[in-house]
Amino acid sequence: MRAKVVTVNDRMQKNYIYTCVKPVGKNFDPQFKPDLTPRQMLGLGVFGGVYLRDCVKEFPASWFAKAKMQKHSVYKSDPELNFFKVNASQPLSVWKNKGWIHKDDPRGWFQWYCRYYMGRRCADDERQIKRWKAISRHIYQLTYNCRSRDFLCRPTQRQALLHWAYDSRKM
To answer: 66: left (phi > 0), else alpha (psi -120 to 50), else beta?
Structure first.
């Protein structure tokens, strides 16, 4: 595979450059096994439809073809666009205050995942994979407290799992 250099110019990053060194969607860390691709997540409805709207040039157009997104003139997330029709997000300011944002991915975990999926590998991979694994505790809570596929049981927790590439529709 030939390395691909990507230059990002969006609302949050200007002239940020990264290199994709792995094939798209392949060669993940053995501990990182997401259920959903970024394209699937966007198509199901995540983040109230406002995430990555100004990043469409960075990622494949196919990711956005069936994505549930707000209009570009709307900056407020709409929980109705989420698969479980609830808000399961915290403001970016909370993520920043908790130190969860890495300088290379100012939008957070999902931006990191999209770039990782595209083949970028970086110094933050280990931390992000640990964070992804830690979210799995919610799977146990769903399976312990809810009947299988009872989408009315803990919808916010189910939506949050979708935000982390866990397919909570199967739980």
So the answer is: alpha
